[in-house]
């Protein structure tokens, strides 16, 4: 029987939670008033009847600052419990909630059916974390590792990576991490307007390399609902990141996140080959020019020989322009595989990159939007079905 604790001052919300766990879930619900938060986690557990909960829901009716302060302490002491904040979500709240260790954010008016799905996923996440804490290295099916690659630079690979990550975060808030594997000259931080305190160099050494809970402290939260592990600020630090480090890092992250988007460096170096050995998917970004197309064809030939072509293959033709002298058919006949996504050349896309706000984040009208949305839909068809203005409010537990 699953156990749920609700801290709220709104009786109707408590009623909806009880209705959600009645029947198929066979759940047990306890409710406490918001005042209990002032005493900290110890006071909360003293007031419980029976065993600790698997899921703790905070709000509605709990001041946001008080809820986040409590959550920060609670998550450190009880990481096996899934924390859910019930409040009107906005970008600032999502960012603060991620940093506080909250696993999910739900709207106060969420209905019984929505609550039931939310609580079921939260229970699965809690069970996975309990197994992970008692048996490190064991857990549920790992998340998808998506390598975004290109043999040559200058084709907009990082722009595609950041937009893909932002798009997936609208379906799975807090369930997406983007890793900047261009460890010498990576631009994910600037592409997302981030000022990271830590980089991938720190994440692959020391305690973080052995403990996923420590590793998550080295990630940078983004207001769209994703996490980022950015490249080091100094190019010479690249020497401290090996292919072995990358393999271990991706295994760690894939057991914590639904999607791991890896923005690789151009080419087929050792680190990139290490990514491909673990990747479930590869997004190949190709420009609409002969050197880029020939480079991609050569890369496919090499990877076929090495048997390093992931099952999920997605070819994105960027900067598509009829005036380039090439057609989509020309590209397909050269590389020998279909082009899955066409992203037209646009003026807005470079501008959004320079601003550090991906177009899928601000929803600006642009010719490239259709192609980028189609790319996200290849990983989660639900993205196409949900209203775009509401996507960031959907509740999904990583």
Secondary-structure map with pairings?
Layout: E1 3-7, H1 11-21, E2 28-32, H2 40-46, E3 55-58, H3 64-77, E4 82-86, H4 91-100, E5 104-106, H5 112-134, E6 144-149, H6 157-171, E7 176-180, H7 188-191, H8 200-203, H9 212-216, E8 220-221, E9 227-229, H10 243-254, E10 259-263, H11 270-278, E11 281-287, H12 290-306, E12 312-320, H13 328-335, E13 341-344, H14 348-355, H15 359-362, H16 369-377, H17 382-385
Parallel strand pairs: 1-2, 1-3, 3-4, 4-5, 6-10, 6-11, 7-9, 7-10, 11-12, 12-13
Antiparallel strand pairs: 8-9
Order of helices and strands: EHEHEHEHEHEHEHHHEEHEHEHEHEHHHH
Q: What is the CA-based Rg, rounded? A: 22 Å
Q: Report the β-strand fraction as a percent range.
A: 15-25%
**What strand order characterises the main sheet?**
8-9-7-10-6-11-12-13
How many DSSP helices? 17
Please mark out the parts with pLDDT under 50 across 5 or more consecutive residues, or reply none: 386-398
